[in-house]
From TrEMBL:
It holds the Pfam family TetR_C_24. This is TetR/AcrR family transcriptional regulator. InterPro entries: DNA-bd_HTH_TetR-type_CS (IPR023772), Homeodomain-like_sf (IPR009057), HTH-type_TetR-like_transc_reg (IPR050109), HTH_TetR (IPR001647), KstR2_TetR_C (IPR041490), Tet_transcr_reg_TetR-rel_C_sf (IPR036271). Residues 43-62 bind DNA. Residues 20-80 form the HTH tetR-type domain. It comes from Sinomonas cellulolyticus. Keywords: DNA-binding, Transcription, Transcription regulation.
């Protein structure tokens, strides 16, 4: 490859990295501010001040506040899809895939706690098309957990439950860490919270004859 093309590729990669970094900076600032005050009370100038940038820079990335709110919510849901799917790909045991999917979901909630709360608070403020997109992304993020639950049922490892009800209940539990962090963090670390909730959920469904195979997941409930 000619030197000029190498330089062009390197420059383009640098520009892309800068755009991604700046966008992440704006999304994180918006999530913090909107989570504290709500979208009705926050202006684009407020978000710019929170991010430490000019308001003109924000408008280079987002046309208006609703587009910014939509982007924050879609970003956290995209992270859920990626981080839930990745840990389960190479795990042959469906029960352990359930636990891995939940842990991945919880990791995103911990890392993007403000955005996770915002997704709950502000989805209703979006335009109908935006709400439909958010719903589709949420369903997509739950699919690895639903699939693992179905496989665990088919394998006779857990009792027959509705996989969708079980999965959404489990994922709602993940969100509780963000929604009630002020309470749980008084007496549990994030890792302890994940372990406790995993044990509680799985102990309710794993068949008695298979409980001995999962002492690390069930803990004292094994």
């Amino acid at each position: 490859m000619p030197t000029s093309e190498v330089r062009t590729d390197a420059a383009e990669a640098a520009r892309t990295a800068l755009v991604d970094t700046r966008r992440r900076q704006l999304l994180n600032a918006a999530a913090r501010l909107l989570g504290r005050a709500g979208s009705q009370s926050v202006s684009m100038q407020n978000v710019a001040d929170e991010a430490g940038v000019s308001v003109g820079l924000i408008y280079r990335y987002f046309a208006n506040k609703q587009e910014l709110v939509q982007a924050v919510i879609e970003d956290v849901l995209h992270e859920f899809s990626v981080r839930v799917a990745d840990p389960v790909q190479d795990e042959p045991d469906p029960v352990r895939r359930i636990a891995a999917a939940f842990a991945g979901y919880c990791a995103v909630v911990q890392e993007l706690r403000d955005a996770a709360v915002l997704a709950y608070q502000e989805s209703k403020t979006l335009e109908p098309e935006g709400r439909d997109t958010v719903k589709d992304l949420e369903v997509e993020s739950a699919e690895p957990l639903i699939a693992a639950t179905r496989e665990a049922i088919d394998a006779g490892l857990i009792r027959e439950v509705d996989p969708r009800v079980f999965a959404y209940g489990f994922l709602t539990t993940a969100h509780l860490w963000a929604l009630k962090h002020w309470y749980f963090s008084r007496f549990l670390t994030h890792e302890q919270y994940v372990a406790e909730q995993t044990a509680l959920a799985l102990s309710a469904v794993i068949r008695p004859e298979h409980r001995a195979a999962y002492p690390d997941l069930l803990g004292p409930l094994a």
